[in-house]
Amino acid sequence: MSAGVNPSGRLRAFQDGFAAALIAPSVPAGGASDVPPEIARLVAQPGFAVYRNTVQKGCIDALQANFPAVSRLVGDEWFRAAAMIYARANLPRQPSLLDYGSDFATFLAAFEPAAELPYLAGVARLDRFWTEAHIARDEGLVAAAAVAEFAAAELARVVLHPHASARWAWFDDAPIVTIWERNRTAESIVDDAASLAPDLEWGAEGVLITRPRGAVLWTPLGKSGCAFLEACAAGETLAAAATAALYADPQADLAALIAQTLDAGAFGRLTLRGDDPGEPAQ
Amino acid sequence: MTTGLSAGLGLKPQHYDAAHAAPADGLWFEVHPENYMVDGGPRLAWLETIRGSHPLSLHGVGLSLAADARPDALHLGRLAALVERFEPALVSEHLAWSTWRGAYRPDLLPFPRTNEALARLVDNVDRVQQALSRRIAIENPSHYLRIEGHEHDEIAFLTEIARRSGCGLLLDVNNVFVSARNLGFDAEVYVDSFPAGYVDEIHLAGHTADPSLGEALLIDSHDAPVSPAVWSLYERLIGRIGPRPTLIERDDNLPEFDVLQQERRRAEAVLCAPARQAA
Q: Quick one: chain B helix, strand, coil %, rounded to 5?
């Protein structure tokens, strides 16, 4: 702050007091000891609630828009109550609210009332992946034909770089992807895993989320596929990524896996190890 | 009026297709730039498409110009990138604060209009105009509180910011009506006193009565049609200052695009009415 602009610090003191009162659970009208009298007299006016409600509603609405599957899964009332607790402790860092709730999944994982819904944090993680894919930078796609051009000897040196929008996850202990997908696309609220999916098989699942063109898409992905993409993201060659995939699942069909991920638009760039100055030599 | 803009509409994703298809004919669209501060994807592609067919206005809610701090460098940089890419006809912000000590509160918060705040605002508006290489307009917010310690009334304060920084003003007629009711001043006197030469843009919106306090506390909710009283104030204003780009602002409880077009045509009719005698 430049001294010339701020001669008295009164504005700063006002904003500190007002900001604290906005998120305080309640401020006694008579003025608590740590509330400046000037702020306490504002809080006592009926209009102060308009600001408090607008800030609260703005945060909660943004979270509900960013986590639609979580909201459908737990219902409006539960979601908004949880979102309010999150918002009080985690105001947005930036005015662009699309990015709000980047750690909402972590919050839900530790949120006591969600202890009976062990799949909730995973569903939140996939909602967040959807947003990240939606707003990721634009990038071209590596076509299957571009990979097919390489001779077998060269193919081992190929490095496939995940597309800016590509996100993937493997869930070992619950069908998170099915639960997420059915709530993300459901037209009516479904309030528990059993009724939303009577045919639900309780097992491990993985998913690949991409935005190859305008729209965000997703496709089931096996454990080997997730390991494969992890290795690609770490800058490994196709040969090393294939080894990682087989390590995760010795039965993996590598040709099908590569075809599937290319077809889903999982890769934005292809380089040859040794030709790319940006690649560390191995 | 140098922009050639007539009456415009706030643009919402639900209306993208109808908006793009609507005849240009003086129609322009306003968006919150915060909703387009993304690295890529369909949102920016859509805005490109709309910008190809209609003039655009960027109406910011997040610069926090009245905070006792410089505008956030990341946010200002993202706004500058949008301005460079979309070359909007108008860029505006609010006489309010929201981001403070690294946290953003999604609202337009009030403050005492002191000389200290005036110096800070002039400096911040100047920084923004330099970063964007263009003039912006500052909007009068809605008021719900009697704040102690004002050293300027709102019109004198806005006029002084405009005079010192070279910015324009955005007069939100609904905000005047809501504030006048909530704080007990005369909306007509306010509208009659507003400095005509600085008005770059006008906003019209709907409001609602507070659920518990009723008409004694009006909320600037942007979820209803423009009220008859606000239309009257608007006609009075245009009769005095002449036509200015006018936006129908609707953020919630969205009707069909055609319903908004009807409101827009009503504003257009006011703008096109033969100039009246000065009040």
A: 45, 20, 35
Cβ–Cβ < 8 Å for B207, B221 = yes
Q: What is the mean pLDDT of residues A108-128?
A: 96
Mean pLDDT of A26-47: 79
Of B34, B102, B116, the CB nearest to A93: B102
Chain B residues with CB-CB distance to A62 below 8 A: 106
A234 alpha carbon, distance to own chain's centre:
20
Which residues of B fall within a CB distance of 8 Å from A86? Answer: none
pLDDT band at A274 (very low <50, low <70, confident <90, very high): confident
Rounded to a whole number, what is the distance in Å from the CA of B96 to chain A's nearest CA?
A: 11
Q: Are A204 and A173 in contact (CB under 8 A)?
A: yes
Contact yes or no for B204/B173 (Cβ under 8 A): yes
Q: Which residues of B touch A42 (CB under 8 A)?
A: 145, 147
CB contacts < 8 A, A to B, total: 147
pLDDT reading at A29 higher than 60: no
- What pLDDT does A3 receive? 42
- ipTM higher than the 0.85 cut: yes
CATH number, domain at B242? 3.20.20.150
Domain assignment present for B231: yes
pTM above 0.90, yes or no: yes
Which residue in chain B has the smallest CA separation from A47? B144
Please check the confidence at residue B63 and state whether its pLDDT lies above 90: yes
Q: In this complex, which of B38, B111, B210 lies closest to A98 when CB atoms are compared?
A: B38
**Cβ distance of B104 and A93 shorter than 8 Å:** yes
Domain that holds residue B39: 7-272
Question: Across the interface, do A15 and B100 touch by the CB < 8 Å criterion?
Answer: yes
Give the separation between CA B72 and CA B63, rounded to whole angstroms. 7
Q: Please check whether residue B170 lies inside any domain of the structure.
A: yes
Count of domains forming chain B: 1
